[in-house]
Design goal:
Blueprint (H helix, E strand, L loop, with lengths): L9 E5 L6 H15 L6 E5 L2 H10 L5 E5 L16 H4 L5 E4 L2 H6 L4 H13 L3 E6 L3 H5 L3 H12 L10 E4 L13 H19 L8 E4 L7 H5 L6 E4 L6 H9 L7
Bound molecules: phosphoenolpyruvate.
The site of phosphoenolpyruvate has 12 residues, from strand 8.
């Protein structure tokens, strides 16, 4: 295998509501130290809002990008406690939109998520749109329908020539240690690719599709070797610098 046989995988760490400013800087430094220039991957870390600036300063000049975990759809105004894409655009390159925890705990609707995506793109931030079915949908054979309906509503009116990333995260696999089998993940990714192909034709191939749900350094390889999986969105494992960097190292996608 030569260096050129390795395709670039996109690995995104979602730190969720973990780390203080100080521990976020320590974690970012540890990841930077181990990853910098060693592997041919795109790596993004998503700390809490309060640490975004410090982490982006810590990672300045490295090959690790920074993302936010959420944003509001409005540019500015009387929306106490919220952060706009315009504000984020000065400190990060990515933003996670529609994570299942936001959909569930904060009742975020498909329409709101659609507006956030449009706002992120107009502020030149790459949105990472999360979609995925819950266990009930899967058990009732409705997983594909659920994901189609989220995608159709969330992507409504979007110019998919813009840079966007889609993460398939089955809700039942997030933080549970019960990752989806590679077959289930690939089957859904193929479905997503078909939906995208209906919207944008061949250009759908250029949209990175990430799998998320209990990914770790031991199982990342089987996901990124699937035909339609381009990387992973990682929660728990991204909080441990050593484990996260091993995960990144194990994410080399040999020719598929
Ligand atoms: C996530 O939060 O998006 C996630 C996939 O979490 P975990 O890796 O812990 O399952």
């Amino acid at each position: 295998m030569t260096y050129d046989d390795i395709a670039v995988a996109l690995i995104v760490g979602n730190w969720k509501m973990n780390t203080t400013v100080n521990s976020a800087i320590t974690l970012a430094n540890a990841v930077k130290f181990q990853i910098e220039d060693q592997f041919r991957h795109e790596v993004v870390v998503c700390p809490p809002y309060v640490s975004l600036h410090s982490v982006s300063e810590t990672l300045r000049g490295s090959n690790i990008a920074v993302g936010a975990q959420n944003m509001h759809s409005e540019t500015n105004g009387a929306v106490t406690g919220e952060i706009s894409a315009e504000m984020l655009s000065q400190i990060c390159q990515y933003v996670i939109v529609g994570h299942s925890e936001r959909r569930t705990y904060f009742s975020e609707s498909d329409l709101f998520i659609n507006l956030k995506l449009l706002a992120a793109l107009s502020a030149d931030i790459t949105p990472i749109l999360c979609v995925g079915e819950n266990l009930e949908d899967r058990d009732s054979g409705l997983a594909h329908d659920m994901v189609s309906s989220q995608l159709e509503a969330n992507l409504n009116g979007m110019d998919l020539d813009s840079k966007i990333v889609i993460a398939y995260e089955p809700v039942w696999a997030i933080g549970t240690g019960q990752s989806a089998s590679p077959e289930i993940a690939q089957d859904m990714m193929f479905h997503i690719r078909e939906i995208l192909a209906d919207l944008v034709g061949n250009r759908s191939e250029a949209i990175p599709l990430l799998y998320g749900g209990s990914v770790n350094e031991d199982n990342i390889g089987v996901y990124v070797s699937q035909a339609d999986i381009d990387g992973a969105l990682v929660g728990g494992t991204s909080l441990n610098a050593d484990a996260f960097c091993r995960l990144v190292a194990n994410a080399s996608r040999t020719e598929r």
